[in-house]
Amino acid sequence: MTLIALMNLAVTAAEEAHGGEHEASDAFPPFDPTYFASQIFWLLISFGALYFLMSRWILPRIGGIIEERRDRIADDLDAAQEITSEANETRSNYEQALSDARARAHSHAADAKDAMDKEIAAETAEVDAAISTKSDEAEKTLAEARVKALSEVRNIAKSTATLLANEIGGLNVTETDADAAIASLESR
Domain residues for 150? Predict the structure, then answer.
């Protein structure tokens, strides 16, 4: 039976209950007691149909959508947790690699500094040795020049003393006598 046939049947039943005629009343039709039976009938039919639709199709679909959404949210939260843990692990690996690289860089810098210090020390030793050698040679040359100058001074003093004694003093002094006199003055 279709819905229209049921409505016609209900209207026919209501007319038969009232003697086949419809009397006009002053009451608002939904509140008119003559229509209460058909209104209750249609209320029960509508409620039953709505309940059937809700319980069989609409509520299961809504429940499925809610469950699917809950599962998707849980999966997304699990994926986010995994990504976070992977990011933390990657960050710790990066920090470890960075600290290792810094340690290697410090080690290489220290090794390079040690090598440079050794090279500088070797070059300094070479330069010091060269300076020492040149200094020794200069001191030898100076000592020789001093000895030579002193011997020249002695010769000059000897000839000057001889010349002064002979010219000023009117003495007859030889260079040998002057040399002996200078030697006796140096020994004092």
Answer: 138-187
In a domain, 175, yes or no: yes
Q: What angle do CA 157, 159, 162 make, to 5 degrees?
A: 105
Residues making up the chain, counted from first to last: 188
Q: Contact at 8 Å (CB) between 37 and 14?
A: yes
- Residue 91 domain flag: no
pTM above 0.70, yes or no: no
pLDDT in tens, the chain (188 residues): 566 666 667 667 666 666 545 555 577 877 888 888 888 999 999 999 999 999 999 999 999 999 999 999 999 999 999 999 999 999 999 999 999 999 999 999 999 999 999 999 999 999 989 999 988 898 899 888 888 887 777 778 778 878 877 888 777 878 787 778 777 877 77
Residue 18 lies in a domain: no
Domain count, the chain: 1
Residues in Cβ contact with 45 at an 8 Å cutoff, skipping those fewer than 6 apart: 6
| Residue 13 and residue 40 in contact, taking contact as beta carbons nearer than 8 Å | no
Residue 159 lies in a domain: yes
Question: The tokens of 129 are what?
Answer: 């040795």
Choose among 49, 39, 37, 40: nearest CA to 2. 49
